[in-house]
Amino acid sequence: MAGQDGMTGHSLAKALRWGVLALACLSPLKAGATEAAGFTSLFAPSATGEPFTLEAARAASGALLLRWTVEPGNYLYRDSLEATRDGAPVPLERPAGEVKDDPTFGVVQIFPRDVEASAGGLEGTGTLRVAYQGCSETGICFPPQARLVDLASLAIEQAPAGLMSSPADGSGRNSVASTGAAAMPASLDESDGIASLFQGSLGWTMLAFLGFGLLLALTPCVFPMIPILAGMLTRSGQALTARRSLVLTGAYVLAMAGAYGLVGAVAGWSGASLQAALQTPLALGVSAAIFTLLALSMFGLFDLALPAGLSARLTGRGTGGSLGGAALVGFGSALIVGPCVTPPLAGAMLYAAATGDAATGAAALFMLGLGMGLPLMLVGAFGPALLPRGGVWLERTKQLFGVVFLAVAILLAGRLLPPPATLALLGVLLVGSAAFFGGFDRLTAASGAAARLARGGGMAAALYGATLIIGAAGGAQDPLRPLVFASAPAASQGEDTAVTVASSDGFDRAVAEAAAGPANGRPILVDVTAAWCSVCRSNEQVLAGPELRARLSHLPQVTADVTHTNAETRALMERFRIVGPPALFLVDAQGREIPGSRIIGPVTVEEITRRLDAAGA
Amino acid sequence: MQRRHFLTLAGAVAAGALAGSRLLAQGVDVDAILRDPAAPTAGNPKGDVTVVAFLDYNCPFCKKAAPDLERTVKEDGKIRLVYKDWPILTEASVYGAQMALAAKYQGGYSRVHHALMAIPGRGVSKEQMAAAVRASGIDLARLEADLTAHAGDISTLLKRNLAQAESIGLQGTPTYLIGPFRTSTLDYAGSKQAFAEARRRQAAE
Q1: Distance CA B53, CA B73 (A)
Q2: Contact between residue B38 and residue B82 where contact means Cβ atoms under 8 Å apart
Q3: What pLDDT shows up at residue B157?
Q4: Chain B: nearest CA to A335, how far in angstroms?
Q5: Are the C-beta atoms of residues A608 and A614 closer than 8 Å to each other?
Q6: Which of A18, A135, A172 is closest, CB to CB, to B35?
Q7: Which CATH class for the A494-615 domain?
Q8: A592 pLDDT exceeds 80?
Q9: Which alpha helices (H) appear in A484-578, and where do they start and end?
Q10: Which residue ranges does the record assign to the Thioredoxin domain (chain B) (predicted)?
Q11: 8 Å CB contact between A253 and A377
Q12: What is the average per-residue pLDDT within B21-36?
């Protein structure tokens, strides 16, 4: 069902495209008319005559002689000369041919000049079917020819030949099944584990994705959602009832799931890469802006900055938080966990894009989002009991979450900004919040433990923030190692075999270079990564680990850096049908992906070893 | 549901447009050859020059030229490539063409096409082709289903290709139609030259 649907859509869409073109500018009509004069032959000699002609004769012994005239520049394949009588093969005496050894085609025996073959035991009447096939030296292969030789008169006529007449008719005859399908392993299940989820019934597919979502909720990459959600609930302040909290959390989770569903639908409709859509500067910029606005409202700046109506809507004062605001945050949250959910997303996306079945793809991803959000409902249920209800603590907590929101906004913007700029922004945020939380306040002898703790924490934050700013000035990229540039060679040491590219052309160049290098002919390891992809960092550590280091040092590597979303990186990802980082696969010397070598998501030493073994790398 | 409705509607509009062009254009066959909606395409769908490749999966010269053609199409960026599966050499060729065209229903034509083209030689058996398709990473269950469900469509397309090739008097594989030109020898340099010439002619018209 889905398949038929998809195909209908596909061909119709294609027809539509051409139809619109025809309507819009009539250019196809013009092209059709001008080219209708006929195709002129540009390079090939316009051979009009038959390259091979067959004659039959009787030898004195009574044997049948078959003689082929081969026009100069053509040749017959020796093994193609065949004869059958009533469907039974008739042995032909063929002379030895000229040996043609072509690196591409292998060793074959050919007849570049006229040739004669004979067959005995063909007295009397009947019809002999003679088949032959050959090529031109100019590089064209002619269809096999068949002639009927009347054994009595030796008259020759054209045989009703054609491969197409029979096999293409029999609908099921040439199925993959009839050709060793029993031995056909479901290779899909091995290489694209997630895709196999779609082979079951729709209900199971949905359940499976819900389960996947639940599993994903246990991975660290969903944790950022917890403070975001808690912050959102805190913002509602005293008015927050347990029930209201649950409703708000529900809106948040539904919006998050909806964001994924939308992505699935878009994929099904357009076949476009999902994360390319989510990671567009516009989407990221809008999300970053949303989180910045939320943060400002946490600091209480909103009432001044925005019209009262909008402010009330966003902060939801009086109603205990607005549903719209919660949904907005949920939608934005879907962006934050982007890289973490790549593996299941890739599976769902490939399915949705390949079948054009937008509904299933969207529903599956919606279920995934729902699964990821279900544990968050716990926060919604118990949050109000745990979160502060009023006074100074409520204000402090709100401010703290304001800082968290700002950090989220910076991380989102960081996917567009150069890494040092992100570092600098984080540094400024830390120093700023340090001041906000009393890191620079003067302590007196009378200061209590809380004030001293705040001062200590604030100072630490300020120190880290300052370090980040210094790191940014030095061009550092990793917030956990801001001063790495101080120990200069460390950064480049581990990556000397890898070339970093960010475009399809660059990839081709890198592959060509690698193929021409000492590792000529070996597969090339391609690592698709991005600065904002945390799983990629741990993958890099696996690759650099002692188990793999020696093996990989002989292997050319190309790092596809898709940190920045632009037309070039998108084209690179679409070329290999990658949904987003992290992805790891092997290509051959021509830059073609080696089937079955792809790993999406976190990698293990065993998994990489297995793929390397399989590819002979 | 809505989507299907929309596409049906769009399809009707498109069909009308195509019918119109068929009446207007003089070269009925040529238009059909260049713009057969069922034929798999690659390269830039909006390219300013079209190459139509009549190929057979047991055609050694097709395989030899394939990387050069792909390279030219990719580097140029403005070439539209139309694949005409024209299985004329062996019975296995028909089988290969059927699998490749069935893969199109899951968006995998080029994957299977390249897998089959990558098997060297002229005597590739069905079994070898099936193995290559298995290794290509295509959804086999789906392929099998599409092969059965769309057997009629695939057969019709193959026959149409056959008729089209005959109508313009093609002699064998490979044959490439590049703009107004036809050639069977195609290497990297030659194809660049051919595309440049085709563009020059188109501009002159």
Answers
A1: 12
A2: no
A3: 92
A4: 27
A5: no
A6: A18
A7: alpha beta
A8: yes
A9: 490-493, 504-516, 534-544, 546-553, 567-575
A10: 8-200
A11: yes
A12: 56
DSSP state for residue B173 in the 8-state scheme: B
Does residue B4 belong to any structural domain of this protein?
no
| Model confidence at A37: pLDDT above 50 | no
In a domain? residue B137: yes
A436-445 residues labelled b (16+ CB within 10 A) or e (exposed):
bbbbeeeeee
Residue of A3, A29, A33 with shortest CB distance to B145: A3
What end-to-end distance do the CA atoms of chain B give, in Å? 45
Residue B7 lies in a domain: no
Q: Measured between alpha carbons, how far is B45 from B182 in angstroms, rounded to an integer?
A: 20
Q: Where are the domains of chain A?
A: 52-158, 194-416, 417-425+437-488, 494-615
CA distance A157 to A188: 49
CB contact under 8 A, B25 and A354: no
Name, in order, each residue with C-beta under 8 angstroms of A292's C-beta and a sequence gap of 6 or more. A405, A406, A409
Domain tally, chain B? 1
Provide the β-strand partners of residue B182. A41, B177
Q: A431 pLDDT exceeds 50?
A: yes
Residue of chain A with shortest Cα separation from B115: A595
pLDDT > 90: what percent of chain B? 28
Q: Which of A79, A163, A269 sits opposite B91 (nearest CB)?
A: A163
Taking an 8 Å cut-off on Cβ atoms, the answer to whether A39 and B194 are in contact is no
B2 Cβ neighbours under 8 A, 6+ residues apart: none
Please indicate whether, in this complex, the C-beta atoms of A15 and B151 are within 8 angstroms of each other. no
Concatenating the DSSP letter of every residue in A329-355 gives HHHHHHHHTGGGGHHHHHHHHHHHHHH
* pLDDT at residue A553, rounded to an integer: 80
Cα separation of A187 and A610, whole Å? 15
Q: How confident is the model at residue A452 (pLDDT cuts 50, 70, 90)?
A: confident
What is the model's pLDDT at position B97?
94
pLDDT at A136: 83
The tokens describing A172, both together, are: 């099921």
pLDDT confidence tier of residue B57, bands split at 50, 70 and 90: very high
Tokens 């705040």 -> residue: A454
- Assess if residue B91 is contained within a domain: yes
Q: Quote the pTM value.
A: 0.41
Contact B81, B69 (CB under 8 A): yes
Q: Is B55 on the interface with A (CB under 8 A)?
A: no
How much is the average pLDDT of B166-171? 81
Chain A CB contacts of B131 under 8 Å are 180
CATH number of B159's domain = 3.40.30.10
DSSP letters for B133-202: HHHTT--HHHHHHHHHHTHHHHHHHHHHHHHHHHHTT--SB-EEEETTEEES---HHHHHHHHHHHHHHH
Contact B195, B51 (CB under 8 A): yes
Q: Among A290-294, A418-422, B14-18, B48-52, which is the least confidently predicted range?
A: B14-18
Q: Which of A5, A34, A77 sits opposite B4 (nearest CB)?
A: A5
- The two structure tokens encoding residue A55: 């004659």
Beta carbons of A249 and A234 less than 8 angstroms apart: no
Residue of higher predicted confidence among A521 and A201? A521
How many residues in chain B? 205
CATH architecture of A52-158: Sandwich (2.60)
Alpha-carbon gap, residue A82 to A130, rounded angstroms: 6
- The more confident residue out of A115 and A171 is A115
Q: Are A547 and A611 in contact (CB under 8 A)?
A: no
Q: Show the domain range for B159.
A: 36-204
* CA–CA separation, A42 and B184 (whole Å): 9
- Among chain A residues, the shortest Cα distance to B56 is held by A141
Q: Do B13 and A19 touch (CB under 8 A)?
A: yes
Confidence of residue A335 (pLDDT cuts 50, 70, 90): low
- How far, in Å, are A64, A279, A313 from residue A238 at the CA level? 106, 36, 17
Inter-chain contact B17–A175, Cβ cutoff 8 Å?
Answer: no
Task: From chain A, pick out residues whose CB is under 8 angstroms from the CB of B159.
Answer: 164, 168
